[in-house]
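Q: Given only this backbone (528 positions), what sequence would you predict?
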């Protein structure tokens, strides 16, 4: 049987299965209809027996009562069928509503129950049906690794915007579906990330199969999620992938896939973006990274500040520092664009050191203008030497109470244990920690890590156009309720319209930042 996208059935087998189910259901309906007619006939015979024993004087008053007791009428009525019964050598004529009218509710309930049972069995098979190859199911789940010589591999990051049932084991769920669906391409490894994304590696695949594989993986994940949310649009499922050969730096592979995912998420119609990490591209990426770092070393960059407004205080409570590099060909480019061309921890840490130094320099000149928050790369957070350096910089500048740090919730999920010590050290200096890019209810609970969090910032994707989405409204309401129980305020990012602002206020969000309030400003004094 050829491998299929969802449940392993061939299309021909599916059609036969549907035909068989319909035939069985039709036969059961005829059987039920026959049983109901037998019941009506038995009741009619009992009614006729009682009526035949009535005296002439009691007949006129009692016949209607007896007939009604058994569901019949002695006189013709609309939509009724005539029945004749013989009892005690007498013929009694009674009228009864058509079975489809009198017992229609039974027939409807029976059909709905039958259809529901068929769907349940089909769903059960999909969730727990045996995979085509048990050896595939036992493969260790891992992020991208080196491939055998002469072979290619594809590493994909898949993100979606819809809720999934808590009772379903998503790791096993997606692994079964993907092993069935793309196992013919090569060896499949699947990892469901705590952030709600999916990481998939397929090894030992043909050199020309990259895009075909990416498209099929996107279709599989979409079909799986469609089972949870029937109105899900394909535009809500985005896939970014890196197609690579052996001996590639795994940091480059991961960053290439992450950049591809970011490109797909920023496109309305493009749901899949594939990057081919060839030798030439890998060399070009390294060259681009070094070229951008040369701009930083030459001081050809500046900081802008995006203010965050608190609704109750009606004032700015913190300003997010945004890096802009002055490129000779592309003009000013953002930190996110710069990071797409950096691939080693040393490059990321050089960028972070430059940002921290510039923020502290600006703060030294404008100490009276509130707090500033900084985004650092995860490679800096997990490096103890960088944290030592950062702690020294903040201590020397006496700026702890005025500096905050933002980190994506996805990174916190993946590196929580290693981040706890760094957060604790900065917290003792008076620094605030903000969880950024939150898209769903966080799962930190009342852990020591959660106790160090100052605030939660909702992602732009969750907030943008929220007034048109009941699902996103419900998600934000759940996040706000959970954060309130932890004593943590929730803020929104990327507010651009009055409708968005009005909606998040009604959902309990405490503040927001975005172009509706102000574009990023180059001077802290301009904000206040």
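A: Predicted residues:
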């Amino acid at each position: 049987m050829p491998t299929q996208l969802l449940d392993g059935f061939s299309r021909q087998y599916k059609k036969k299965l549907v035909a068989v189910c319909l035939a069985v259901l039709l036969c059961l309906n005829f059987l039920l209809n026959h049983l109901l007619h037998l019941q009506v006939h038995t009741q009619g015979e009992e009614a006729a027996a009682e009526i035949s024993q009535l005296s002439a004087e009691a007949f006129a008053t009692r016949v209607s009562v007896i007939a009604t007791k058994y569901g019949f009428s002695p006189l013709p009525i609309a939509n009724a069928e005539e029945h004749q019964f013989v009892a005690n050598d007498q013929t009694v004529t009674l009228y009864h509503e058509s079975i489809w009218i009198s017992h229609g509710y039974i027939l409807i309930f029976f059909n709905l129950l039958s259809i529901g049972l068929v769907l349940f069995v089909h769903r059960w098979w999909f969730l727990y049906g045996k995979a085509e190859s048990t050896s595939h199911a036992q493969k260790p789940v891992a992020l991208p690794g080196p491939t055998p010589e002469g072979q290619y591999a594809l590493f994909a990051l898949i993100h979606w915007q819809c809720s999934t049932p808590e009772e379903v084991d998503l790791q096993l769920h997606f692994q079964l579906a993907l092993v069935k669906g793309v196992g013919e391409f090569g060896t499949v490894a699947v990892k469901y990330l705590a952030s709600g994304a999916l990481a998939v590696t397929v090894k030992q695949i043909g050199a020309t199969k990259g895009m075909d594989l990416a498209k099929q993986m996107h279709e599989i994940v979409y079909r799986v999620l469609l089972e949870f949310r029937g109105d899900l649009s394909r535009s809500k499922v985005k896939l970014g992938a890196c197609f690579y050969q052996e001996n590639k730096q795994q940091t480059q592979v991961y960053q290439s896939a992450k950049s591809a995912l970011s490109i797909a998420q920023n496109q309305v119609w493009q749901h899949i973006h594939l990057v081919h990490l060839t030798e030439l591209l890998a060399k070009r990426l390294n060259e681009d990274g070094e070229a951008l770092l040369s701009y930083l070393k030459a001081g050809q960059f500046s900081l802008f500040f995006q203010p965050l407004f608190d609704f109750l205080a009606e004032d700015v409570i913190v300003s997010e520092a945004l890096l802009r590099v002055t490129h000779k060909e592309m003009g000013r480019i953002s930190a996110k664009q710069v990071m797409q061309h950096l691939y080693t921890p040393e490059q990321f840490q050089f960028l972070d050191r430059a940002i921290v130094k510039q923020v502290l320099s600006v703060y030294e000149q404008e100490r009276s203008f509130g707090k500033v928050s900084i985004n650092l790369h995860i490679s800096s957070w997990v490096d103890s030497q960088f944290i030592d350096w950062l702690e020294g910089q903040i201590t020397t500048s006496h700026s702890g109470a005025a500096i905050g740090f933002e980190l994506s919730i996805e990174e916190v999920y993946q590196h929580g244990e290693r981040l706890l010590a760094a957060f604790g050290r900065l917290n003792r200096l008076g620094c605030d920690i903000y969880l950024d890019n939150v898209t769903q209810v966080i799962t930190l609970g009342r852990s020591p890590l959660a106790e160090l969090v100052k605030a939660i910032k909702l992602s732009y994707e969750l907030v943008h156009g929220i007034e048109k989405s009941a699902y996103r409204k419900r998600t934000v309401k759940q996040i706000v309720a959970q954060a309130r129980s932890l004593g943590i305020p929730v803020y929104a990012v990327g507010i651009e319209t009055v409708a968005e602002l009005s909606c998040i206020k009604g959902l309990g969000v405490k503040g927001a930042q975005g172009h509706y309030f102000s574009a990023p400003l180059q001077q802290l004094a301009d904000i206040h």
